[in-house]
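[worker-b] picked up task from shared queue
[worker-b] task type: protein-ligand structure
[worker-b] ligand name resolved to guanosine-5'-diphosphate; SMILES cross-checked against name lookup, match
[worker-b] sequence length check passed
[worker-b] input payload:
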Amino acid sequence: MLVGLVGKPNVGKSTFFSASTKAPAEIANYPFTTIAPNRGVAYLRAPCPHVALGLAACTPRTGKCAEGTRWIPAEVLDVAGLVPDAHAGKGMGNKFLDDLRAADVLIHVVDASGSTDSEGNPVPAHSHDPAKDVEFLTRELDAWIGGILGKDFAATARGITMKNAKPEVVLAERLTGLGVKEHDLAKAIAKSEMPPVVTKWTDEDLIRLGGEIRRQSKPILLALNKADSADPATVKRLQGLGLTAVPTSASSELALRKAADAGVVRYEPGDADFTLVDESKLNAAQKKGLEQIREKVMRPFGGTGVQKLLEEAVYRFLDRVVVYPVEDETHFTDKEGRVLPDAHLLKRGATARDLAYKVHTDLGEHFIRGVNARTKRVVGAEYEVQDGDVIRIVAGK
Ligand SMILES: Nc1nc2c(ncn2[C@@H]2O[C@H](COP(=O)(O)OP(=O)(O)O)[C@@H](O)[C@H]2O)c(=O)[nH]1
Ligand SMILES: [Mg+2]
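[worker-b] inference finished, payload out:
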């Protein structure tokens, strides 16, 4: 599962990425700093089952558990900036778009302060309408998918007509990289009201079809970034576009995480505020910077929005539940005695066998039964795992 960060250059994608993954990414106030995509791991919060199970603590292999909150790894991708006509190759756009193939959900990072033009060049604050960026980027994504479908279209369409084939059967192959299946494509074709004769499909028809596929396979959430310097009316207007839109300040999140690491503030990602721990470590400028974050971000928006948006993308849009596999259902441990060692994000509706496969292919293939460690009840391969489940998998060899 992969969360992709998209947007034009200079909106704060790499800052958002660094803040959420703590992986270094080049950040600069000029376009095209990022060329190769950055891949990193962010951590999402979930209530840790060790509390309800009456255990003193747990010992995660990845992430951490603090004060009853478990931090669960999820992959994030920071793609280079996309400009208008990216799908036609502008600014290496088609290469950058291809980097997005594997993403399951997209966070479109928008410069809500309107201080960058359509190509990401700095302009006076509030002089560019960010709603235009939402429009162009959505259209670029649609045209990109439309272009994948429409490669050598005249010949392909003739072939489909001659063989009297179903277009989805022929065209689905082109979309396997996007994780789109034949029946998804058939559904999208029906929904897009494509002309009945395939040879009559125009580029515009294909873009419309691309849009339908994009809505199904790459849902978009908006990060209204640079919210600290945005006009409140603009933020409100962007929240009314019909997409999930969260005001964010990626640079504030990055500053707070660094300050927390340095022991200067107490702050956990997602917190609505922070507290100063050691003022003596701060110079006047740093103190002022933190005060500004409180005034311009925490107070008006109730947090930096970064953690909130990631969790919204994964839990709500991708509909993931958290499941904990163990090898010993009495002590909730693995072979090494680690308590609740792993947490997996599975799609709601996933089964015990799906969990087994996620742990190891062998476990999935030789699945015998599961044991719900909370109730000690045996569960079958088709048992639908529930959020927070702790499951032991018993497999043959
Ligand atoms: N005011 C403000 N500036 C930000 C914020 N996030 C990022 N920036 C600045 O925006 C510029 C571009 O950031 P970068 O992450 O490199 O953008 P990218 O090209 O989209 O990856 C840098 O100068 C950042 O410091 C924010 O929340 N508020
Ligand atoms: Mg960047």
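[worker-b] attaching auto-annotations
[worker-b] The mean pLDDT is 95.
[worker-b] releasing lock
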